Amino acid sequence: MSDNTPGGFFAYLNWLLNPFHGLETTEVYDLIGTTALTEHRLYLNLGYWRDADTIDEASEALALLVAERGGMAAGDVVLDCGYGFGDQDILWARTMKPEKIIGLNITRSQVERARIHVADAGLRNMIDLREGSATAMPIADESIDLVVSLESAFHYRSREDFFREVYRVLRPGGRLVTADIVPTRQSGNPFRRMEQWISWSLVAGKFNIPQENYYLIPSYTSKLLSAGFDGIDIKSIRDDVYRPLHEYLSRDQTFVRKLPPVARMLAKSALRRSAESVYAGLDYILSYAEKSEKSG
């Protein structure tokens, strides 16, 4: 929690406990502040756990997975939409070495913190972090080689507007990669279907996922096609995200201990349940799409 005043504490409890109280995306992240899952960085992603043992390793692995899937390389101009506190951009600058990384983020408190983080890393000439929207990008047409959105596209109002903007700013041959959260396909079992609905509704309500972004992988593909993309490849990686994250948080209470008392109690209650129950309604995808060379 970023605000330790009594007002901030009660705002946090109202968001956490009141099922009828939703917040805008910027308000959610202002309220969460720097209470990240990670111990040594400020990554805000859930991690890719195939070869990771800690949340820091998993969060870094997910950032690298996104970069590698997009073919991030020297000479690329990269646009990172929803960059959080900038940890992923620093990682990419040091390991993938693109020519430039431009970031867009609508949460001012994160923008300010991320800029300091980048300056402290000595990377201001390489990383340009801006305050701006992924659905109305202050970016010139056909000026970007790779657009990435690491666990943020589900917030955009709407994701379709984001796809259209990405297509506009990409050069011919440019690529888009998202690590994104979508609903799971409904089960035929009515009890399981109810579990899925509760799981999705809790996450969507508290993290401001717009109704227009509630769709499955086949519709995700269709919307990319409608925006003009081809070479589309979407894979579910949920088995390498949710279950191992749940197991890690169950055995390592570092993050849980950071939470305010009521949130800590709720987290412990959730961790006593199975991962398949807690995340029943959530799929997690790695999506890749291209703008055809012929489009130019």
Describe the structure.
This protein has helices spanning 6-17, 25-32, 55-69, 87-95, 108-120, 159-169, 190-206, 217-227, 242-251, 254-258, 261-271, 275-278, and strands spanning 77-81, 100-105, 127-131, 144-150, 170-183, 230-236, 282-290. With 296 residues, the chain is of the alpha/beta class. It has a seven-stranded mixed sheet, with helices on both faces. The model is unreliable at 1-21 (pLDDT under 50).
Q: Which terms summarize this structure?
A:
alpha/beta, 7-stranded mixed sheet, 12 helices, disordered N terminus
* Helix-strand pattern: HHHEHEHEEHEHHEHHHHE
Query: What is the mean pLDDT?
Result: 87
* C-alpha geometry: globular
| Low-confidence residue ranges | 1-21
Number of helices: 12
* Distance N to C terminus: 47 Å
Helix content: 40-55%
User: What is the total tally of β strands?
Assistant: 7
Instruction: Estimate what percentage of residues fall within beta strands.
Output: 15-25%
Structural class: alpha/beta
Biggest sheet: strands side by side, in what order? 3-2-1-4-5-7-6
- Summarize the main sheet: 7 strands, mixed
Over the alpha carbons, how many angstroms does the gyration radius reach? 19 Å
